[in-house]
Design a protein that fits this description.
Length: 147
């Protein structure tokens, strides 16, 4: 599955670069913009919410996608004050687990429609998760042309 390979590649390529940012990770690129710490924290929040989706869609008969307040989650998570090494390791490890779940998801589950209107499949949610992750990594590393 291409999205699993893309997730693994993005995490593998980005983790060493993220670790190297160290103290620079707390710098905000501008007013009202998230720092690298807050972006990675947001990606941990995204992983948390999507992991529930990826598992729940396979275990519940009537699974409906729900959103979450991203700004509040970042604020409450206090990622700006988090230890950078711990945060990057959490993000990396959680995404390795997500890749394992994605890889083992049966075709019947991937094709399952998740909303009441049947507008989106689990496969599409997984693909969007990887796109979203790569989008935010590109905010941290705008010079990266691989994602």
């Amino acid at each position: 599955m291409q999205h699993v390979d893309e997730l693994r590649a993005a995490v593998s390529a980005s983790a060493p670069r993220l670790h190297a940012l160290s103290d620079r990770s707390a710098r905000r690129p501008g007013p009202g913009k998230w720092s690298a710490r807050e972006i990675i924290g947001h990606l941990v929040d995204s992983a948390t919410n999507n992991y529930q989706r990826f598992v729940g869609a396979q275990t519940e008969d009537h699974f409906t996608l729900t959103g979450y307040s991203q700004e509040d989650w970042v604020r409450i998570g206090r990622y700006q004050d988090a230890n950078w090494e711990d945060l990057v390791t959490l993000w990396q490890t959680f995404n390795q687990q997500i890749a394992r779940v994605m890889e083992a998801t049966p075709e019947a589950a991937l094709s399952r429609r998740l909303t009441d209107s049947g507008a989106v499949t689990l496969r599409e949610v997984m693909i969007d998760y990887v796109r979203h992750l790569k989008h935010h990594l590109a905010q941290i590393f705008p010079d990266d042309r691989t994602g």
